[in-house]
Amino acid sequence: MSVSHIGIDISKKSFNAALRLLNGKYRDKKFDNNQRGINELLDWIQRHAEGPAHVCMEATGVYWEACAEALFQARIVVSVINPALANAHARSQGLRNKTDAVDARALAEFCRQKEPAPWQPPSPAHRQLKALVLRHQALVEMKTQETNRVEVSREAVQPSLQAHVNWLEEELKRIEALIQQSIDDDPDLRIQNELLISIPGIGDRTSSTLLAFGIGEGRFQSAAQFASYAGLTPRHHESGTSIRGKPRMSKIGHGRIRSAVYMPALSSLHRTKWGKVFLDRLAANGKSPKLIVGAMMRKLVQVAFGVIKSGRPFDPALHGA
């Protein structure tokens, strides 16, 4: 059966859709990124798709979520991909122009060639937890900025800055309580959280971030897949006999997860028995301190995935401790 591949390039206020016809030509249309525009998109797909539709869009902020949810509810296959993959594919096609319409067509072609995995919406509990975790991270960033300003600001504005810092501290406590409550109120999240914090080096904040970004949702089939999603897999640079670049972290993935596991990785390496065993082994093999930290970040998310997949708490004996 023929499949109609559709690319959607989405932004805050609008999105462009490109439907690839069976003859290789395209039908393009622009929609408003609101409920009315999404309804028009569904009607447009129904009228013009030449068979079952498969839609592909990028994970751009939160702008894609309402559209993807509506497509899923309409039983249309939708895939949400990393923007880095879309950019690399567009370059491989030799595209010189970058417009919303061109990007939508490139996504449709990516969908046709790669057949990316279907997306499924997270549960309401996961969605709520992710919103709270993102809000907490934004507040932490704001507090850091305001605290830095207090140290260098004029005396006239210091009371205002300090009052804002005090408010941010109280708001952070309130959001942290809501995060914990959202975990405790959901049986699956509560069990998964208990498994994650059994790992020495992972605390409540790291655990909530991993849960918010889907480590226990079931859409990842392996620990390596989740590590890749976080951008923690190594990237090798070798060519012929003359180029032997040092392996580096790919960082083609979710930066929020990498930020969440950076300090836990340092803590694990220097303050836990299993982390010290890992550190000594890599150091004995001549690995640099920076590489060891990156390897520990990857190890943490892989171990975290493992305890959730197995349903068993962390066992130090499995890690030489």
Rg is: 23 Å
Which blocks of ≥5 consecutive residues have pLDDT under 50?
none
Count the beta strands: 7
- Strand order of the main beta sheet, please? 3-2-1-4-5
H/E series: EEEHEHEHHHHHHHEEHHH
What best-fitting shape do the alpha-carbon axes yield?
Answer: globular
Strand content: 5-15%
Structural class: alpha/beta
Helix content: 55-70%
Number of helices: 12
What does this structure look like?
This protein has 321 residues and is of the alpha/beta class. Helices cover 57% and strands 14% of the residues. It contains 12 helices and 7 strands. The chain has a 5-stranded mixed beta sheet with strand order 3-2-1-4-5. The protein has a two-stranded antiparallel sheet with strand order 6-7. The protein starts with a strand and ends in an 11-residue tail after the last helix. The model has no long low-confidence stretch (mean pLDDT 90).
Q: Tags for this entry?
A:
five-stranded mixed beta sheet; 14% strand; 321 residues; alpha/beta
Topology, pairings included?
Blueprint (H helix, E strand, L loop, with lengths): L3 E7 L3 E7 L5 E7 L2 H14 L4 E6 L6 H9 L3 E5 L1 H10 L7 H15 L9 H29 L5 H28 L1 H10 L7 H9 L10 H7 L4 E6 L3 E7 L5 H17 L1 H12 L4 H22 L11
Parallel strand pairs: 1-4, 4-5
Antiparallel strand pairs: 1-2, 2-3, 6-7
Short description, anyone?
With 321 residues, the protein is of the alpha/beta class.
